[in-house]
Design brief:
single chain, 207 residues, NADH Oxidase, 5-stranded antiparallel sheet, 8 helices, 5 strands
Length: 207
Amino acid sequence: MEFQDVVRRRRMVRSYDPDRPVDPAVVDRLLDNAVRAPSAGFSQGWAFLVLGTPADIERFWAATSDEDPDDRPEDTWLRGMRTAPLIVVPLSCKEIYLDRYAQDDKGWTDRDENRWPVPYWDIDTGMAALLILQTAVDEGLGACFFGVPPHAMDRFREAFEVPAAYTPIGAITVGHRPADPAASEAKGSPTRRARRTADEVVHRGRW
């Protein structure tokens, strides 16, 4: 698929065919591309939790969701997302960046977080997440990036024994689109809001 087609076709897909698993070779490609993302100082302070078994996926939803979708038939988002056969959780590690920039070629030996204008550990991991989304499109799959609720963080960490130094910046569901294409299309903000054009957001030379 041409790169411009990948960009144009990328959508947040919220429902999947639960009977079609993602090929392990494709999973490997998603992750191999993710680690090609840029990172400050080549710190590479990320990790990826891959959940591809029914038990692991059920454990994820139990840890991060407060309600069973069967108790809320109107919660089509959760009901659809739970059909995904694969979840990848990108995690960032601030400590790796602070350690990297305390090395001789950087020299910030005080490891002061205030030296950083923005949290590049999260930004770099976000770029890796985007590569996963784009690779999914290139493979003919659907994917959706979404957040892990703050109040569920401790449950998530406990469920998957995630070290305290690593923070999930979100999670990505991946899978084949359902037989009915309309079932996978976004029903939220993208259907109510127009995409802003480059002319609306680009400022050339000065604001």
